[in-house]
Amino acid sequence: SSLTPSATYTYKFTGSPSKELNDINQMIRQSGV
Amino acid sequence: AQECRELETERLRRLERIKQKQAQLQELILQQIAFKNLVQRNRQLEEKNNRPPPPNTIIHLPFIIVNTSKNTIIDCSISNDKFEYLFNFDNLFEIHDDVEVLKRMGLAFGLESGRCTQEQLKIARSFVPKALQPYVTEMAQGAIN
Amino acid sequence: QEVLEQVEVLKANIAELETQEKELDMQKACLQQSIKHLNEDPSGCRYSYVTHEDICDAFGGDTLLAVMAPSGTQLEVPVPEMGQNGQKKYQVNLRSHVAPIQVMLINRE
User: Would you say C58 and B105 are in contact if contact means Cβ atoms under 8 Å apart?
Assistant: First the structure.
């Protein structure tokens, strides 16, 4: 709850396309580099 | 000349939009093929075994999978009513939806990567409406991006 | 004269692209409806499952969490930040407003 909205990626079940999960995965991968 | 430039910009914008919509359509086609293939597989297996699989060994669609290394430590907090979960990982993770799982199981016949046998292509085409069958053939030939 | 011809060619091109785009929109809508019917069909629902083994095979030796949640459930992933111990914190937050969320740990071992 202390995070600003821009610092969070969101996905909605049965609402968001698969691409949004791909974006999340890419963000996680890049953070690990 | 000004009109020409504006029309060219408009043309490129439409081309880009069409490219995106074609990709979305291909993704929907893969989803339909994978789903129908799954239903067919499970129906045949249940008929062969004369019973459904035990309920505690299966997961119904839709679902998502969070995968991480087997060495990752996962800390999980759950609200009393199970309406909220918080997971903390000490390592990277990935999230995939059920369509991705079905593709990894081979239920999209490898169409997503342009690897598909003639026999599989025949079955895949039968899973989509006739008007969309040319897209399936294109995908099998590796035209998918 | 050359530019005028180019304008005509571009206009014709754009008209073709507009037709192509409308057809794509129609095909997408048709397919989305078809997938919706498949998901709602009782016999389809009965057989729309994967086994634990299917999932384990798809992800090698990873630890897996299968999440089954109602439509509209929000999944939030904050951009990882460095923790006080010098390690990055990776988080997933699930929030439902309709029904409980089910999470299953699937591990081959």
Answer: yes
Place of tokens 């989509």: B128
pTM assigned to the model:
0.86
* pLDDT score at C108: 64
Task: Confirm if A7 and C80 have CB atoms less than 8 A apart.
Answer: no
d(CA B25, CA B28): 5
pLDDT interval class at C60 (50, 70, 90): confident
Q: What's residue B145's pLDDT?
A: 44
Whether residues A28 and B93 touch (CB distance < 8 A) is answered with: yes
Task: Give which of C2, C31, C57, C101 to mutate to test B binding, by max B Cβ within 10 Å.
Answer: C31
Count Cα neighbours of B143 within 13 Å in the Cβ-side half-sphere: 12
B99 at A interface, C-beta within 8 A: yes
**Judged by CB atoms within 8 Å, which residues 1-33 of A form the interface with C?**
3, 7-15, 24, 27-28, 31-32
From the list C73, C77, C90, the residue facing A13 with the nearest CB is C73
Residues 6+ apart with CB under 8 A from C31: B25, B28, B29, B32, B128, B129, B132
Question: Closest residue of A to C87, CA-based?
Answer: A32
List, in order, residues 6 or more apart from B102 with CB less than 8 Å away. Answer: B34, B35, B37, B38, B108, C50
